[in-house]
Amino acid sequence: MEQTPRLPEPQALIFDMDGTLFETDTLLRGVHERIFDTLREEGLYLEPTPPVEKLLGCLGMLLEDIWKNLMPGSTEAARLRADVLMLQYELEGLEAGEGSLYPHVADVLRELKARGRKLFVASNGLEHYVKGVAEHQGILELFDGVYSAGEYKTATKVDLVARLLQDHGLESAWMVGDRSSDVEAGKGNGLPVIGCAYAVYGRPDELSGADVLIRDFRELLTL
Fold first, then answer.
1. Does the keyword rRNA processing apply (predicted)?
2. CA distances from 108 to 26, 120, 142, 169, 218 (A)
3. How far is it, in rounded angstroms, from Cα 223 to Cα 48?
4. How far apart are CA 159 and CA 175, in angstroms?
5. DSSP structure class, residue 72
6. Long-range pairs for 29-38 at CB < 8 Å and ≥24 separation?
7. CA neighbours closer than 13 Å in the CB half-sphere of residue 155
8. Contact 111/143 with Cβ under 8 angstroms?
9. What is the CATH number of domain 12-24+100-222?
10. What confidence tens digit (pLDDT) does each residue in 143-172 have?
């Protein structure tokens, strides 16, 4: 990196999950097919399965908004059923050993913890999925808190991060993520934002408001 700005030392680092810590497509490709096969079998959505890339492009959104993008014109019953199926099939995939973290994530988190940093997750996903990823990937014990929109019923990630900061009395933290919602969550709470440019799920301009871009998770240690 060139001309990296000097960031204030953080008490804590707050991580998005999908596309930041977890390489989501390693789990989601099979899940995606199963969801739409089941919806058609149950007569809830009869259109062809949308490309999985469209789902991956929606990561970071709330589930309600994801289904509206993937299934325009669908009924509320179809979208609610898709919520249930996604969680069920994701957890089954995790139990079967599917899915992987990005390179070096586990080692870097352990080093950050050893340096005395508090670590948190803030995700727009469902509670059992977000915690399930952390548990099955062997990193759950490294976090001081795992926050999800599914658990706290927050309307935006700005609200979710605000709740996290308040709950833990944090005065300084960095927000680390790969989507515009992560940039908004950081900036909306007065936090520096580290943009994960190694992720491929979003648009190239989504991280334009980040303070620093990293292309390898190990760069966090040099920051």
1. no
2. 21, 14, 11, 24, 6
3. 46
4. 13
5. T
6. 30/89, 30/93, 30/98, 31/86, 31/89, 31/90, 31/93, 34/85, 34/89, 35/82, 35/85, 35/86, 35/89, 38/85
7. 0
8. no
9. 3.40.50.1000
10. 999 999 989 999 999 999 999 999 999 999
Sheet strand arrangement including 173-177: 145-148, 118-123, 12-15, 173-177, 193-196, 212-214
- Region at 104 (left for phi over 0; alpha for psi -120 to 50; beta for the rest): left
* Burial of 72: CB neighbours in 10 Å, binned 0-12, 13-18, 19+: exposed
Written as one letter, the residue type at 212 is V
Give the CA-trace dihedral at 184, 190, 191, 195, to 10 degrees. 30
Sequence-separated (6 or more) residues with CB below 8 Å from residue 79:
64, 67, 68, 71
Q: Is the pLDDT of residue 217 over 60?
A: yes
User: Does 200 score more than 90 pLDDT?
Assistant: no
Q: Which residues pair with 115 in a beta bridge?
A: none
What's the CA gap between 180 and 210, in Å, rounded? 9
- Name residue 20's amino acid: T
Domain boundaries, the chain: 12-24+100-222, 25-95
Q: Report the SS3 class of residue 196.
A: strand
pLDDT digits (tens, 9 = 90+) for 80-104: 999 999 999 999 999 999 999 999 9
